[in-house]
Design brief:
4-stranded antiparallel sheet, Rossmann fold, single chain, globular, binds calcium ion, alpha/beta, 5-stranded parallel sheet, 8 helices, 12 strands, 2 domains, Arc Repressor Mutant, subunit A
């Protein structure tokens, strides 16, 4: 049974969600303010499979909760609930380390689809070895870096950079299609599981973050290349001349 923590201060909304998710077979708990949620999620005794995190909270807001959670090295999947799907809010959420977002008000069916999507990607990321899934890739090394997809950690020169679920999933998707250009809309559908009506800057924002981890010069990426007007591609061993200055978009 998957365990969900709902972080929401509007009691009727939190309780309604709890009932609905319990009816769908989830084990659900509620926290009503940001600091309490952060304490709960960083305690060693609790583990949740996914967090539904409202942005507007007393104490710490949702952005700050997820930022501090990631800083504490906790990478439980987080679905942010935003009052409106402002592009700025969405980007701030992903920048803080959220894995997905949903604008309020939302249909229960859509929330369930997103939750199952996050749980499925989580289990897919962690279980490929056992299942021998065709998409299996537990580890990848290039340019002095090693990515451990099972642990969601990037290693280089004795440094460890934890990756969020979506960072790891996006990176693995591109690495498995090395040298192939993939469009933003395909990435949104295949990696995030969402249709094109979602702002495609989500993809750009994630690519920018991955470049900061992976590239010696993020402004001149050699591995995570932009293909103008088309999308992105991963190249493990670029040719010397193969720089990619086109990062403006
Ligand atoms: Ca709220």
């Amino acid at each position: 049974m998957s365990r969900v923590l709902i972080v929401e201060d509007e009691e009727h909304l939190a309780f309604g969600l709890k009932l609905n998710l319990e009816a769908e077979g989830f084990a659900v708990e509620i926290e009503e303010d940001g600091q309490a949620a952060l304490n709960r999620l960083t305690a060693t005794t609790t583990s949740f499979d996914v967090v539904l995190l409202d942005v507007m909270l007393p104490g710490l807001d949702g952005f700050e909760v997820v930022r501090r959670l990631r800083e504490a090295g906790r990478f439980v999947p987080v679905l942010l609930l935003t009052a409106r799907a402002h592009a700025d809010d969405v980007l701030a959420g992903f920048e803080a380390g959220a894995d997905d977002y949903l604008a309020k008000p939302f249909d229960l069916s859509i929330l369930l689809a997103r939750l199952h999507g996050l749980l499925r990607r989580q289990s897919w990321l962690h279980s490929s070895e056992q299942t021998g899934h065709a998409d299996s890739l537990d580890e990848f090394q290039f340019a002095g870096k090693r990515i451990d997809f099972r642990e969601q950690v990037l290693h280089w020169d004795g440094t460890e950079q934890p990756l969020t679920l979506m960072e790891a999933t996006l990176l693995r998707y591109l690495i498995k299609r090395e040298s192939q250009t993939v469009s933003r809309s395909v990435l949104l559908e295949e990696v995030w599981g969402v249709r094109q009506d979602t702002d495609t800057r989500t993809v750009d924002n994630f690519i920018a973050r991955l470049r900061r981890y992976l590239e010696a010069e993020p402004a001149h990426p050699k591995h995570l290349q932009t293909v103008r007007g088309v999308g992105y591609r991963f190249v493990a061993e670029p040719a010397q001349s193969d720089t990619n200055p086109d990062t403006a978009d």
